[in-house]
């Protein structure tokens, strides 16, 4: 628990409303003060970057710029898609979960090609969206099959607020502790529910990776491939899954990790 912070575990972490505006984060000196590491410090030349994404698009939101920067210098990458994200339009009369899973697999593949990954650089586990916690042992055993001790692994923060994100983060932490992989936890939904400077969050562990123009452009283009998440959801909600505050965050010039 020390890595993620006992105090943060007491927070409600509810994901609701429009989320904390990006201007609030950018105006908070704590972000500018967070230590920056270079690409070589995050990922020594020659290591493989493995990103374990609970849902298609989380790999882009968490570290699309880091993926693009690593592939640009010939670095090996693997994205583990834990679920196909088939629950994002629950209740839709026009899109079945099977339609959505198919669509989102295509969207994630297109997005990853934009980031420089090859077709074979993705492992799809196909666990049920919204029920990762109940399938934790399957996730842990699947990760044991793909992770190598020298990998650097990124996944969602263990206290990110979304149940699938938290369960995935815990599974990855467990397997990394056993295999010796370095684990970087990316906050994704935390930026939505948290307040800048909240003393209960482990800001002292937050470190950044600054994106160059090419990486930032690739990240934004990769997110654009996730069209199902960017359009209003017919008959469900008038707003998309990825709303304006999230799109503002994707334009951020730094990606942050609890390390
Ligand atoms: Zn997600």
UniProtKB/TrEMBL annotation:
Database matches in InterPro entries: GlcNAc_PI_deacetylase-related, LmbE-like_dom_sf
Any one GO MF annotation of this record: hydrolase activity, acting on carbon-nitrogen (but not peptide) bonds, in linear amides
TM regions (residue ranges): none
Superkingdom to which the source organism belongs: Bacteria
Name of the protein this chain belongs to: GlcNAc-PI de-N-acetylase
UniProt organism field: Rhodoferax koreensis
Lineage: Bacteria, Pseudomonadati, Pseudomonadota, Betaproteobacteria, Burkholderiales
């Amino acid at each position: 628990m020390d890595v993620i912070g006992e105090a943060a575990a007491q927070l409600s972490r509810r994901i609701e409303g429009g989320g904390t505006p990006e201007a609030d984060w950018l105006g908070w000196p704590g972000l500018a003060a967070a230590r920056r590491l270079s690409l070589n410090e995050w990922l020594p030349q020659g290591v493989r970057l493995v990103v374990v994404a609970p849902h298609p698009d989380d790999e882009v939101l968490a570290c699309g710029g880091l993926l693009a920067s690593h592939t640009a210098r010939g670095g090996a990458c693997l994205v583990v898609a834990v679920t196909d994200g088939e629950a994002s339009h629950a209740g839709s009369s026009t899109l079945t979960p099977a339609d959505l899973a198919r669509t989102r697999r295509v969207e994630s593949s297109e997005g990853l090609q934009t980031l420089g990954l090859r077709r074979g650089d993705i492992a799809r586990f196909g666990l049920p969206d919204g029920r990762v916690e109940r399938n934790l042992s399957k996730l842990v055993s699947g990760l044991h099959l793909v992770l190598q001790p020298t990998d650097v692994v990124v996944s969602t923060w263990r206290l990110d607020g979304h149940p699938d994100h938290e369960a995935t983060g815990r599974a990855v932490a467990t397997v990394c502790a056993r295999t010796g992989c370095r684990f970087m936890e990316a906050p994704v939904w935390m930026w939505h529910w948290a307040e800048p400077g909240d003393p209960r969050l482990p800001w002292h562990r937050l470190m950044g990776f600054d994106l160059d123009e090419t990486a930032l452009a690739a990240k934004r283009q990769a997110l654009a491939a996730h069209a199902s998440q960017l359009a209003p959801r017919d008959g469900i909600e008038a707003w998309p899954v990825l709303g304006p505050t999230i799109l503002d965050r994707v334009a951020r010039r730094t990606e942050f990790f609890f390390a």
